[in-house]
Amino acid sequence: MAEREHDQILRFVIEGTPIRGQWVALDASWRRCRDKSETDPRALELLGEALAAVTLLAQSLKIDGGRITLQIRGQGPVHLLVAQATRDRSLRGLVRQSGSLPEGESPELDRIFGADRIVITIDQGQGEPHQGIVPLVGRRIGDALQHYFEHSEQLPTRLWLAADAETAVGLLLQRLPGELEDSDAWNRISQLADTVTDEELLALPSRTLLHRLFHEEDLRLFESEPLRFSCGCSRERIGAVIRALGRAEAESILEEQDSIRITCEFCNAQHVFDAVDTAALFDSDTPTPGNETRH
Ligand SMILES: [Zn+2]
User: 69 CA to middle of ligand 1, Å?
Assistant: First the structure.
């Protein structure tokens, strides 16, 4: 059997139906995110699943600069999870754990996070970002997202996600608008995909997996495309963070330390602003802090 592709995303359509799909595998890109997160394996799996999901969903954005961020913030043992992917196929993410996970085989997400919702921010790369609130239901990230798609005006969408320490994989099916000539297609193809196991998702090359699930369908596959870890943090953006602190706060930090050092939580890059750099931030006439530069 062929080896499974690494850090690739593959689109496909099911001919004769308005159903399209994507398969994604995150490997080195996933491990870059994982390495910054010291948590139990279960918390890492949740991050991996969230990253696979946002990477798939970001492909439906219209503009290359667009990005999707999934964030869960709570009071539970895992108190923060952030997964972000861009339309141009880069991703970053982190998860933070501060206590022991609830006992039991597969505790529910709201107990793991001590939160009741996921915030999904869709930034199309122009105009105001759109925020969606997803109830944090079920035991896996896919359960909660399923609920979101059933209760929002998004296209009917199904996701199958799996992750372990080495890899994070996702499969997405989406039904495009329009009359179904084959009225049973969406149910039939969703049910076929429902038979997939985590083990198959994690191990099988895309073609083998898709053939195993949909061999009775007329599948058209496109060329797969590479994915990469990319943080996107920059001196400019960190400068905006310092400006948001305000001049008084920034100066009081500088009284205690010779510089303001901010370490990016996503990539560990250290951004250093000394007194001169900091003064320049507040003296310049650049726009208000928080307005990130768009590319
Ligand atoms: Zn960074």
Answer: 15
